[in-house]
Specification:
Layout: H1 8-34, H2 40-64, H3 71-79
Length: 89
């Protein structure tokens, strides 16, 4: 909802936060299943829903990010580091 009513830069931040929270939820639900508080079938159900939400958020992110900027460069900018290239020797 927040991403609908904000500027592009704020939308990117909100959607990245959504992705991070989805990852946290995936970990929490696996832990819940490991503790036998839910069944494998319940974990599968939740995981499928989280994956669907992640695909939607990822699509919105790709739509907002500049098309000429590779994903690796976006990650480097977000992290403030330069990632090693597989072509570096």
């Amino acid at each position: 909802m927040e991403a609908l009513y904000t500027r592009r830069e704020a939308k990117l931040i909100s959607l990245r936060r959504v992705n991070l929270n989805l990852e946290k939820l995936r970990v929490f639900w696996r832990l819940i299943c490991d503790r036998h508080w839910i069944s494998q079938q319940q974990l599968l159900f939740v995981s499928q829903r989280l994956d669907e939400i992640g695909r939607m958020a990822g699509g919105w992110l790709r739509q907002l990010e500049p098309p000429d900027t590779p994903d690796e460069k976006n990650l480097e900018r977000q992290l403030g580091v330069e990632l090693p290239s597989c072509h570096d020797h």
